[in-house]
Amino acid sequence: MFRPLPLYIGLRYTRAKRRNHFISFISLISMFGIALGVMALITVLSVMNGFEQELRTRILGMTAHATINGYLRPLTEWREAQAYALKNPEVVAAAPFIQQEGMLTLGQQVSGTVLRGILPEEERQVADIHEKMRTGSLEALKPGEFGIILGIDLARRLGASMGDKVTVVTPTANVTPAGILPRLKRFTVVGVFEAGMYEYDSALALIHLADAQVLFRMGEGVTGVRLKLNDLFRAPFVSRQLAQGLNDVFLVSDWTMQHANFFRAVRTEKTVMFVILTLIVAVAAFNIVSTLVMTVTDKESDIAILRTLGATPATIMRIFMVQGTLIGFIGTLLGVVGGVALALNVNGIVSTIEQLFHVQFMPANVYYINELPSQLELFDVLRIGGVAFVISMLATLYPAWRASRTQPAEALRYE
Questions:
Q1: What 3-state class would DSSP assign to 166?
Q2: Are the C-beta atoms of 106 and 157 separated by less than 8 Å?
Q3: Angle at 184 (CA atoms; ends 179, 186), nearest 5 degrees
Q4: Which of 206, 311, 344, 355 is deepest in the core (most CB within 10 A)?
């Protein structure tokens, strides 16, 4: 079977036993260095993809894809805004809400909170909070009964459980003959939810919209209308459409505006990590340079004989490029296989380590979520594998060029 001469000799050099075992050792180090760098890159980028996706899912599970607010005042025309938004074919559901800050007290425990007034039957259409309930249900919020649903960490901090009475303190005040007193109202705990995101579990409390209107003296007004869309990534376009059709008393925003800096920071960090970890592959590729330089020195007499038999400098150059490229290819392949396997099982591996050593790598109050998600993307695998292979090929150029410059007479002088 015909084989090109550079490929045939390059593969022979790769398989042949070396007189200098140190060269073989450096070759193995180069191969495993590339594999380690590729594996680390795939795993880290998959974890960052999963982290971004999980945060987006959890954030948008509690917030809206788009929101129509009143401009510098409560929104009293919210029914008109809701009806107008639902006419848009890309808007799936719309629900009014009231959101204000306050404090909750139970016994000696005090905690700041964000109070959100909702209509339970409409809220479940725009958010999945009803799926996050640990105890109770959204339907337990009845107008006039002043029930409240707490995030699980907020409930733990207060020491509150089902049926307990908590006192809500609002920023507004009552003017009485005794002076200015804060507005207080007792609510009954009718449910506890766990969103899986510390920001909401530790600070959010839900009450009925009618109770919120009474508590904050908003009359028939609301803070705004929350919208759910067919495609969350079209939220900026749909928001612009709605804003053009509404008058100046309405302010339309979407989730990309509310959390833009956060997701931009995540993407920037992902890019930086890709660059930093690519340097691991580059360092391993320098070992290929060392391997080939030593191989060229070791094979000078063989190169000289090939030159005297008619091999051109280009042929000699391709022989050593084949050898170095093969090292890079095997290392890249091992790294891709190992990286894919690790990325697909990283959550289970981390959980096992946490149980064995009784540690927690992802505290929820620091990293927003308490588990290590992973989302493997084919594009990332192909990009990482391609970059590693190209770096390996580039690393062969100088040693191969040096081999092609070998002079037969000089190499065979002392043979």
A1: strand
A2: no
A3: 155
A4: 206
The type of residue at 177 is P
Of 112, 157, 161, 162, nearest to 140 (Cα)? 162
Query: What's the whole-model pTM score?
Result: 0.69
CA distance 87 to 91: 8
Q: What is the DSSP letter of 222?
A: B
Q: Worst-scoring range by mean pLDDT, 27-31, 239-243, 335-339? A: 27-31
DSSP notation for 111-147: EEEEEEEE-HHHHHHH--GGGGEEEE-GGG--TTT-E
Pairing of strands 91-106, 165-176: antiparallel
Rounded CA gap, 395 and 292, in Å? 9
What gap in Å lies between CA 332 and CA 384, rounded to an integer? 9
Phi/psi zone of residue 144: left (φ > 0), alpha (ψ -120 to 50 degrees), beta? left
For 80-106, write each residue's pLDDT tens digit. Answer: 999 999 999 999 999 999 999 999 999
DSSP 251-315: EEEEHHHHSHHHHHHHHHHHHHHHHHHHHHHHHHHHHHHHHHHHHHHHTHHHHHHHHHTT--HHH
